[in-house]
Amino acid sequence: MKKILILLILVFTSFCFSQNQNTLIGTWQQQTGNDIFRIEIEREIGQYEDGTPKSVTLGHFQIIELDNNGNETIILNSDQTINPNTPNSFQLPHAIRGGFYNYESSYYLFQFTDINGTTTDLHIEVLDNNSLLPNQIKWTLKGIIIGDLNVPKNATLTRQ
Q1: What contacts 81, CB < 8 A, 6 or more positions away?
Q2: What burial class does residue 21 get, using C-beta atoms within 10 Å of its C-beta: 0-12 exposed, 13-18 middle, 19+ buried?
Q3: Which CATH number fits domain 2-159: 3.10.450, 2.60.40, 1.25.10, 2.40.128?
Q4: Which of 125, 108, 116, 109 is nearest to 78 (CA)?
Q5: Continuous H helices in the chain
């Protein structure tokens, strides 16, 4: 009986941990008038070249404008190739990287890099904590920010 109880606890703990790791995966956005700030977060699982396991949370952002008919025009996209179709082309790195959960302060800590090269800490707080698949998050850029940003410093985003 004791072995079954231990096994159940391990399975439940593994389930909770995996759910917590995937809480933010998906598309999130904030719409203000005709402007949309959208982020897409994914989880990359695999292994590095040296064979060590890899499990990292990554993401990109878009700034979008809606016309009067509701059609979207992407103004800015962090998921892009610079100088495409040339020998000097390169893919911009993910704008959002990390996702370590701070249990004391109840937020996920990421590193955010704007397409202009500005890098700062990003805190993402789940606003409806009673759900394994939350509907709203709070986006807050922290730390010293030198230069202009293409994204809001603070935003409340809704799952799409």
Answers
A1: 89, 90, 91, 92
A2: middle
A3: 2.40.128
A4: 116
A5: 2-21
Residue 127 to residue 156: CA distance in whole angstroms: 9
**What is the band of 3 on the pLDDT scale with cuts at 50, 70, 90?**
low
Is residue 128 within 8 A of residue 137, CB to CB? The reply is no
Q: For the segment 39-97, what is each residue's pLDDT rounded down to a tens digit?
A: 999 998 888 889 888 888 999 999 999 999 999 999 999 998 888 888 888 888 999 99
Domain boundaries along the sequence of the chain:
2-159
Quick one: tokens of 112? 């955010």
Q: What is the pTM of this model?
A: 0.79
C-alpha separations of 65 from 37, 103, 151 in Å: 9, 36, 13
Residues recorded for the chain: 160
